[in-house]
Amino acid sequence: MHLSREEEDILEGENGAAAAKSMEILLAIGKIFGAEKLIPVTSSQISGVSYKTVGDAGIEFLESFAKDGRVRIPSYLNPCGMDLEEWKGMGFPKDFARKQLRIIQAYKKMGVEPTCTCAPYLIGILPKKGEHIAWSESSAVIFANSALGARTNRESGISALASAITGKTPYFGYHLDENRIAEVVFNVKAKLGEMSDFGALGIYAGGIAKQRVVAFEGIEDFTVDEVKALGAALAASGSVALFFIEGVTPEWRVVDKPERIEFGGRELKETRESLNSSKDAELIAIGCPHCSLEEIREIAEKVRGKKLRRKLWVCTARKIKKKADKLGLTKIIEEAGGKVVSDTCMVVSPIEEMNFRRTAVNSGKAAHYLPSFCKQRVLFGSLKDILE
Amino acid sequence: MRIKGRAISSGKAGGEALVSNEAISFLGEVDTKTGIVVNPKHPLFRKSVAGKVLLFPRGRGSTVGSYAIYQLKKNGKAPKAIVNEEAEVIVAVGAIISGIPMVDKLERRGFKLIKSGSKVVVDGDKGIVEVLK
């Protein structure tokens, strides 16, 4: 792989130990994937923030990197394992909280913004079409590639941090035109009524597509939040990083003879059933990926004046929660017995240690991960179903 | 015997080779406290990777596996060096952040020539594996 003079210097340690390691990481990844060079990236989005996912090794690594590692480009954090302001009142274990705060502190020291959201595009972080970025949260990667037309591979938390510190990424994969082409086309015949239907479609299509680029025909009438849910599920059940929707996404390219698959009412029904492993739940968790203000408004409208039998977590970015506070939406949800939770979500927080065994969700991604990551049985349904 | 390969993670270290003909997932398959392979289905079951020059075809599993290698290193139970047939990102990044020299893609089917128990030196700067005996 060809390195510029400046990149060689960083590798030799001119900018410190963390920058040298970062360059070594990017160089190794570039070699593995046959990249010819490194290219500049304009932002980094870093996963591996929850203590639950990175553990003690993660803390030690991040603290040692933070000694002299400083980011060179705008860099943002994925959700961590708890609400950073209200964890005490919410029953998060103290030992967990102490370790979580050390992780956040290490990232802050390096100059990473503690946005703690998986949906940075909802808080104004919107890379443009063709812009090269290094993001790692799989649902944010697929949204940036597909809905925005930006270009990123599915980075790991560590490689995204290496890009943050060097401002570079190896030039391969989804940074190149030749790989941004769909090999599987799903003809959607089923009527997609609401968000959970989009999640179910994503789970079904991701399972078939695996790592390939996906194209959808026949999807009409949808919201940004539904596209968010579709992408998140595609990236969870497969490792899809890019999809196209006919007539909608900034890009649309399909190989000459793609695999063609129909998604009808039967497939929708069967996928929805496959995600269900419980008839009831102790916790209702919404916001995987993080809720937009519109979703919070819809939830508030549905629970206004009610008293919920179960706990309700509405997970979102702190910036969006502040807006919801101002608009009185948080208060409506709290009066019904719910909670608007920031900085975290049901998948990366230790809900299994907080006496939850069954969780109700409207997210395909959450339904896919909760059984293995959080030992939960899942009630998967529409927003209306799970709130009633 | 000197075998040319590709440098993946810098540094130089040597020791006794431990060879696996199957991929390894460091997350869950190796106990990070002891360095012992705990998956009963793995050919290295009950063997320790600690202090060895570990040869295996490639890594697999979750990207958090990089941190498992780092944890092994912190516990003093990491391999001294790693040789892969063909590196993938999880082990490569794990080796780099842990300061474990690593080489892959050995010339002339070199990977197959090294047996468990051989004395091997891995040069992760030059991308060379030397088999002493």
Q: What's the number of structural domains of chain A?
A: 3
> Can you tell me the CATH architecture of chain B?
3-Layer(bba) Sandwich
**Fraction in beta strands of chain B:** 25-35%
What's the rounded overall pLDDT mean of chain B?
94
| Mean pLDDT figure of chain A | 96
Number of strands of chain A: 14
Structural class of chain B: alpha/beta
Task: Report helical residue fraction of chain A.
Answer: 40-55%
CATH class type of chain B: Alpha Beta
Spans of chain A of at least 5 consecutive residues whose pLDDT stays below 50 are none
Textual characterization of the structure:
The complex is a heterodimer of chains A (388) and B (133). Chain A has 388 residues and is an alpha/beta fold. Chain A has 3 domains: 5-175, Aconitase, domain 3 (2-Layer Sandwich), CATH 3.30.499; 181-272, Aconitase, Domain 2; 277-387, Aconitase, domain 3 (2-Layer Sandwich). Chain A has helices at residues 5-11, 17-32, 51-65, 94-110, 138-148, 157-166, 195-209, 224-237, 265-274, 293-303, 318-326, 329-335, 364-374, 383-387; strands spanning 38-40, 44-46, 75-77, 134-135, 168-170, 182-188, 214-217, 243-245, 254-263, 283-291, 311-316, 338-342, 358-361, 377-380. In chain A, strands 12-11-10-13-14 form a 5-stranded parallel beta sheet, with helices on both faces. A 4-stranded parallel beta sheet of chain A has the order 8-7-6-9. A 3-stranded parallel beta sheet of chain A has the order 3-2-4. The longest helix of chain A has 17 residues, at 94-110. The mean pLDDT of chain A is 96. The N and C termini of chain B lie close together (8 Å). Chain B has an 8-stranded mixed beta sheet. Chain B has one domain (2-131): Phosphohistidine domain (Glucose Oxidase, domain 1), CATH 3.50.30. Helix content of chain B is 21%, strand content 26%. The chains are: A alpha/beta (388), B alpha/beta (133).
